Amino acid sequence: MSCYDALAGTYDALTGDVEYEKRADYLEKLFARSRIDVKTVLDLACGTGTMTWILTGRGYEMIGVDASEEMLAAAMEKSGSVEGVAPIFLHQSMPELDLYGTVDAAICCLDSLNYLTRPKDVQRTFERLRLFIAPGGVLIFDINTVEKLRALDGQVFLDETEDTYCVWRPEYHRGLCTYYMDLFQLQNDGSWERTLEIHKERAYTVEELTGWLQQAGFGEIRTYGDMKMRRPAAGEQRIYFSCVRL
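Above: the chain's sequence. Below: its structure in token form.
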């Protein structure tokens, strides 16, 4: 069962500050690092498909992959009036990625890679990505940094909409950040339903991820500050990686 089962229906409303369009602009800047013309793109851990559909509207042929059936269902409901070839959505976990062919680029957004809490699963994911990114294609992903996850320990956060309250409490211990999320949703009869979800993110260092990328067959590995075209600054909260499939 995915940790997003209950959250899927309200995820978009609770993440309205993500600035997806701005992040899509940034991804396109990094696509320019590819040695080939980027036309087909894999959105790994695509969630509710917001980025998948934005890039579809910009002319890319998209494949969205996610481990949560509920998140994928929300993604497929967004077909609307977006022009372009409709995305293909696949229900798969990251370490078990299995496509029918190769793509020119792959993205993995919003610290999804941190959700792989076993280093072996990260290494396996990089190996699978190398199989399905065409030679010269680009892989782009971002992570929550060690500094960010460590600083979350003991804090309490509240996200809310008119019909949803989400209270989440992170605990950090030995590189693992556990989020205890109490989700309260307004029902048709005026009552509130409470659901508890537990999310976990592993903190990985730049050095660890760089080494695993090299072992998997990626080169020209660069890191950037959050939506910046510069190297990460000290204390950076989110870091982007860009690398080329050799």
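The chain has a mean pLDDT of 92.
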